[in-house]
Design brief:
Largest sheet: 7 strands, mixed
CATH architecture of the largest domain: 3-Layer(aba) Sandwich
CATH class of the largest domain: Alpha Beta
Order of helices and strands: HHHEHEHEHEHEEEHHHEHEHEEHHEH
CATH topology of the largest domain: Aspartate Aminotransferase, domain 2
Radius of gyration: 24 Å
CATH superfamily of the largest domain: Type I PLP-dependent aspartate aminotransferase-like (Major domain)
Number of domains: 2
Distance between the termini: 69 Å
Bound molecules: pyridoxal-5'-phosphate
Number of helices: 15
Length: 399
């Protein structure tokens, strides 16, 4: 309610619902933007409200369609990814589902890969076919299959991730986006593992992120983002408003706060990952280390050209059996035994969680997950503490 309208004396219950506002006076503002924790916004006149709906006046009306705090986050995230617009969502998977539903329709075909986040695969394989969308799922390493599929089958979009989860394969983003465009398909990149500072210079049409990970950074809030050109996102926003994946303003505020230290955290996490990868590569209990920062890694040369850093994820295969891998993760004291990535604390994903139930044995192989695969997400702790923890857990696993 406008506070400059005259008011008669009010009963306590009425007063409690219409308190006086204490907004800062003109020329005075909070250094940190307030959390606009309001679902509704009003104008002084019906005419202004109608003008806003006709797009003739800026403003907010209902937070599912727009809110100043979520808009602040959208503008920042778009800029960090190097695009001009963004839609933030209540989780990363809401960004995935909204993108798929907004861009695809009955009769469309999409190209996707086994090296894709599990719940996204669910949407591609189980949900979209219910709406008449067909897919081809290959390995990102099957360059000939990708070229053949795009040449033979009209394709609406190519959905991919890089680095992939959990094998950390590096996809040639320039090659794949150019190929998609040559065949009239949109290139959509789930850029969660890489981060907002990666891949902005390639002509990817839509970037999807789980902001839950590096952007928020502290493991205490779910959020997602769809990023692209304002022309494409204007159309997608119409669908998003009606699908309703809106991010709560308080969660948006937490992500904005997390982003202040995004680059500092990421640098510390990547430095830890490099130390840990080097340590584990020389350990007799470790068969294989996958980390694009290691010169021996198959993705190293491409990552050097394509990526501003090598990331904070390290995936290892232990020598021995699944039991050794289970004992190893259970013996870790500093690494949380859980999913997710990009937190300030280090995390370990045991092989049980990495095994995919929807894969054929060939797909499982292409995905790069074996009986002793363990995925590590490095945090910002002191490297020597992490190395000591890994050493004692390896000793305990084989004792
Ligand atoms: C690559 C990728 N995309 C999307 C998601 C989904 O994000 P959220 O958990 O925020 O829904 C995740 C979560 O782990 C992910 O790793």
């Amino acid at each position: 309610m406008s506070t400059d309208k005259p008011r008669p004396p009010l009963q306590p219950i009425t007063r409690a619902n219409h308190p006086d506002r204490a907004d800062p006076p003109p020329g005075n503002r909070s250094l940190v933007a307030p959390i606009w924790q309001s679902v509704k916004f009003e104008f002084d006149t019906v005419e202004s409200t109608e003008r806003m709906f006709r797009g003739q006046q800026d403003g907010y009306f209902y937070s599912r369609s727009g809110n100043p705090t979520t808009r602040e986050l959208e503008r920042l995230v778009a800029e960090l990814q190097g695009r001009d617009d963004c839609i933030v969502t209540a989780s990363g998977i809401a960004a995935v589902s909204t993108t798929l539903l907004a861009l695809l329709g009955r009769g469309d075909h999409l190209l996707c890969f086994v090296e894709t986040y599990g719940p996204t695969r669910y949407l591609l394989r189980r949900l979209l076919p219910r709406f008449g969308v067909e897919y081809t799922m290959l390995s990102v390493e099957d360059a000939a299959g990708i070229e053949r599929t795009l040449a033979e089958r009209p394709t609406r979009l190519v959905w991919f991730e890089s680095p992939t989860n959990p094998a950390l394969k590096i996809v040639d983003v320039e090659w794949l986006t150019a190929l998609a465009h040559r065949h009239g398909a949109l290139a959509v990149l789930d850029n969660t593992f890489a981060g907002l500072h990666h891949h902005g210079r390639y002509p990817v049409d839509v970037y999807v992120h789980s902001l839950t990970k590096y952007a928020a950074g502290h493991g205490d809030v779910l959020a997602g983002a769809i990023i692209g050109s304002s022309a494409l996102l204007r159309r997608m926003r119409e669908d998003a408003i009606h699908l309703g994946p809106a991010l709560d303003p308080h969660a948006a505020f937490l992500v904005l706060r997390g982003l202040k230290t995004y680059h500092l955290r990421r640098a510390a996490q990547c430095a830890n990952a490099l130390r840990v990868a080097g340590f584990l590569a020389g350990h007799p209990r470790v068969d294989r280390v996958r980390y694009p920062g290691l010169p021996t890694d198959p993705g190293h040369a491409l990552a050097r050209v394509q990526c501003p850093d090598f990331g904070s994820m390290v995936t290892i295969d232990l020598a021995g059996t699944a039991d050794h891998a289970r004992r190893f993760v259970e013996s870790l004291a500093l690494f949380g035994l859980t999913a997710s990535l990009g937190s300030t604390e280090s995390l370990a994903m045991p092989p049980q969680f990495l095994r995919s139930r929807d894969f054929t044995p060939e797909q499982q192989l292409a995905c790069g997950v074996g009986e002793t695969t363990v995925r590590l997400s490095l945090g910002i702790e002191a490297a020597e503490d992490l190395l000591a923890d890994l050493e004692q857990a390896l000793a305990a696993a084989y004792a």
